[in-house]
């Protein structure tokens, strides 16, 4: 079934005639003009010797002209010589090559073409002569030596080939040449010559890869002792250059195959200690595999510790004040139970004193001393060494600028454990004299309390209070101590001295502690007296509330209400609206707890109404003038019933609420009316 294809005819955009018309005659004429002419071959056959000589002479002239025109273009000379070679005119070809060599004797390709011609036509002596000239002039061109030796070997002249190689080796060529010489001797089955070549090669190229090749050669020849000697000599001869992963991996694998496991282990460890971690990943992996196969658990642990030790030392080399790295290294050495190495690490760590005399830079550093002293005392049971460490640490810290209370306390506690009480007291005394801190006082007092030395504790509290004059803590603790000893007059006397000291910060803590102690003693009259004395000093709302809550706890309703009423009257007089509102709110809660409904209703009527007001923000410009464009801020204000102008303000607020309510009602009615009208339409 034929398939019909609908093809769209091309549309002609311009149907006008072309101003240049081409006829069929012109098309045919153009084709005839450009038709290729038939090439007629000429008869170039040479019919006699005279004609041959004529052609040769003509070609030679052409070559000579080209060579004269471009004397240093060696391609013309090579073509010239090869043409003469093709005519079996070897003397002429040699002459051309010689003339070319006079122009460019360093051209390796020219020499090779010359040599290939002599070898191709079996002019062996000529080839040898050219080789000799080439290697004398260009002894560093390995290709001449390779071809020369290969030619002699092909001809069966093995002694001559060996002589060529030996002459070549005198020039100390590259590795490839030595390997070629070795391969030649191996083909000749000259084992001793092979060994001599390898050792000459090692002397000529003293580098790691060369030594490893010699070792592999000895291993292949099953001379294991000689191979081991070469590998040991590698490290002696090359030094730092030999400290590479491939060397240790090869050496260790060699010893492992020979079942010298101890030697292999030492090689692995030496390599890991002397090669950076990032360059010894394969060595570490092989060592781990080795220990899993042939080692014990302790040896595997030593391997892991060794690798971590290297890592920590690298971090310390980058920053000697990296105390986190020092801690990791110290803890690692402690875990290995190697005392000498641990002590060396501690000593190296504590020598890295922070360069800046600021306490925040010393915090991590001083913990090295703590750890060192604790290690000597608890792990090694060396109390004398621990004491010496503490003394050294105290000499290092600049106590005039800052101190570490924990250092003094740990030193004193260490002396207590050593049953040296006088020394412990002396340490605390020196600390208080040089750099007194609250922690030192508290620790010293705690020690004396455990020893039931009350007189000493009193002296310490007195000294504590004298040094820290603005701190209420020593006074409170001192008073509580006297109270615990049933020395009531003493503890009250201490509190009285303290509350009359105007230098103390936060005196409210003293008053609270004094009042709480009197409440515990059930001296309620004294408590009331203290509250009254406190109210003479401050009229803070919290004092009034605390006083009222005290009376509430005793069930003294009338006293409680009287106190709250006094407080409200005073706050009303001072126009402290917010504090007054707080007092009334708490008063309401107290009345609720009493359960007197009449009083509850009465206090509810006193509760203020909170309103939001706006006031101008007071701000000043750079020139000191008042900023008129600072804006306004909102704040809360309180309106108390019964106050002056309060009724008028409340009535005004009621009217505003009613007006707003009526307006909302009116808007709702209008919307309903509009909705009804729409429905009717």
Describe this structure in words.
The chain is mainly alpha-helical and 681 residues long. Among the domains are: 68 residues; 114 residues, Serine Threonine Protein Phosphatase 5, Tetratricopeptide repeat (Alpha Horseshoe); 45 residues, no CATH class. The protein is 72% helix and 2% strand. It has a two-stranded antiparallel ribbon with strand order 1-2. It is elongated, with a radius of gyration of 56 Å. Its main location: nucleus. Involved in pre-mRNA splicing and cell cycle progression. Required for the spliceosome assembly and initiation of the DNA replication. It comes from Pseudocohnilembus persalinus (Ciliate).
Can you describe this structure in just a few lines?
Keywords: Coiled coil, mRNA processing, mRNA splicing, Nucleus, Repeat, Spliceosome. Involved in pre-mRNA splicing and cell cycle progression. Required for the spliceosome assembly and initiation of the DNA replication. By secondary structure, this protein is an all-alpha fold.
Name a few traits of the molecule.
repeat; two-stranded antiparallel ribbon; about 70% helix; HAT_Syf1_CNRKL1_C; single chain; 33 helices; mRNA splicing; nucleus; mainly alpha; HAT_Syf1-like_N; Serine Threonine Protein Phosphatase 5, Tetratricopeptide repeat
* Fourth-level CATH superfamily of the domain at 353-466: Tetratricopeptide repeat domain
What is the number of helical segments per DSSP (H or I, 4+ residues)?
33
The portion of residues forming beta strands comes to under 5%
Which topology of the domain at 353-466 does CATH recognise? Serine Threonine Protein Phosphatase 5, Tetratricopeptide repeat
Q: Reading side by side through the largest sheet, how are the strands ordered?
A: 1-2
User: Which CATH class of the domain at 353-466 is shown?
Assistant: Mainly Alpha
| SS elements, strand count | 2
Major β-sheet profile: 2 strands, antiparallel
| Terminal residue distance | 75 Å
Q: Which ranges are low-confidence, i.e. pLDDT below 50, for 5 or more consecutive residues?
A: 1-5
Query: What structural category arises from helix and sheet content?
Result: mainly alpha
CATH architecture annotation of the domain at 353-466: Alpha Horseshoe
Task: State Rg.
Answer: 56 Å
Question: What's the shape?
Answer: elongated
Calculate the mean pLDDT score and round it. 85
The helix fraction, in percent, is over 70%
């Amino acid at each position: 079934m034929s398939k019909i294809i609908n093809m769209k005819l091309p549309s002609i955009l311009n149907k006008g005639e072309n101003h240049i018309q081409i006829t069929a005659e012109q098309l045919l004429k153009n084709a005839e003009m450009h038709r290729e002419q038939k090439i007629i071959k000429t008869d170039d056959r040479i019919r006699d010797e005279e004609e041959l000589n004529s052609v040769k002479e003509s070609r030679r002239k052409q070559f000579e002209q080209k060579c004269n025109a471009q004397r240093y273009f060696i391609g013309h000379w090579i073509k010239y010589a090869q043409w003469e070679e093709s005519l079996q005119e070897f003397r002429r070809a040699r002459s051309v090559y010689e003339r070319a060599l006079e122009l460019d004797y360093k051209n390796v390709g020219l020499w090779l073409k010359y040599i290939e011609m002599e070898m191709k036509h079996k002019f062996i002596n000529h080839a040898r002569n050219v080789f000799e000239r080439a290697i004398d002039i260009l002894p560093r061109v390995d290709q001449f030596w390779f071809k020369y030796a290969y030619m002699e070997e092909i001809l069966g002249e093995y002694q001559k080939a060996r002589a060529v190689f030996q002459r070549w080796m005198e020039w100390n060529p590259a590795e490839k040449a030595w390997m070629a010489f070795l391969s030649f001797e191996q083909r000749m089955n000259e084992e001793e010559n092979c060994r001599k070549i390898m050792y000459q090669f090692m002397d000529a190229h003293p580098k790691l890869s060369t030594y490893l090749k010699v070792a592999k050669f000895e291993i292949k020849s099953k001379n294991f002792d000689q191979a081991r000697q070469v590998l040991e000599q590698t490290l002696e001869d090359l030094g730092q250059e030999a400290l590479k992963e491939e060397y240790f991996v090869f050496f260790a694998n060699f010893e492992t195959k020979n079942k010298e496991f101890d030697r292999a282990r030492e090689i692995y460890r030496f390599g890991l200690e002397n090669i950076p971690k990032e360059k010894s990943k394969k060595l570490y992996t092989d060592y781990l595999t080795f220990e899993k196969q042939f080692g014990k658990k302790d040896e595997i642990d030593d391997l892991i510790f060794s690798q971590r030790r290297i890592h920590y030392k690298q971090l310390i080399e980058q920053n000697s004040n990296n105390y986190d790295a020092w801690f990791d290294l110290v803890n690692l050495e402690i875990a290995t139970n190697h005392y000498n190495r641990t002590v060396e690490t501690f000593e190296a760590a504590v020598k890295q004193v922070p360069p800046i005399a600021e306490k925040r830079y010393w915090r991590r550093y001083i913990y090295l001393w703590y750890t060192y002293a604790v290690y000597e005392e608890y792990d090694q049971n060396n109390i004398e060494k621990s004491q010496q460490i503490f003394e050294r640490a105290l000499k290092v810290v600049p106590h005039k600028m800052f101190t570490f209370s924990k250092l003094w306390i740990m030193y004193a506690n260490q002396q207590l454990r050593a049953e040296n009480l006088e020394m412990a007291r002396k340490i605390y005394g020196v600390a208080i004299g040089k750099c007194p801190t609250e922690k030192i006082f508290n620790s010293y007092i705690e020690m004396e309390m455990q020893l039931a030395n009350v007189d000493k504790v009193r002296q310490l509290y007195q000294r504590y209070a004298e040094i820290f004059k603005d701190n209420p803590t020593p006074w409170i603790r001192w008073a509580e101590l006297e109270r615990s000893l049933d020395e009531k007059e003493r503890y009250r006397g201490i509190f009285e001295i303290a509350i009359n000291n105007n230098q103390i910060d936060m005196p409210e803590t003293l008053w609270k502690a004094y009042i709480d102690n009197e409440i515990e003693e059930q001296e309620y009259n004294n408590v009331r007296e203290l509250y009254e004395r406190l109210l003479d000093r401050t009229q803070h709302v919290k004092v009034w509330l605390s006083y009222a809550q005290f009376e509430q706890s005793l069930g003294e309703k009338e006293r409680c209400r009287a106190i709250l009423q006094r407080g409200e009257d005073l706050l009303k007089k001072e126009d402290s609206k917010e504090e007054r509102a707080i007092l009334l709110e708490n008063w309401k809660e107290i009345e609720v707890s009493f359960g007197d409904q009449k009083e509850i209703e009465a206090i509810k009527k006193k509760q203020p109404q909170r309103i939001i007001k706006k006031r101008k923000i007071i701000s000043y410009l750079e020139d000191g003038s008042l900023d008129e464009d600072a804006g306004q801020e909102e704040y809360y204000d309180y309106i108390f019933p019964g106050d002056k102008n309060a009724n008028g303000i409340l009535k005004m607020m009621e009217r505003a609420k009613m007006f707003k309510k009526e307006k909302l009602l009116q808007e709702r009615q209008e919307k309903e009316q509009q909705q009804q009208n729409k429905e009717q339409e």
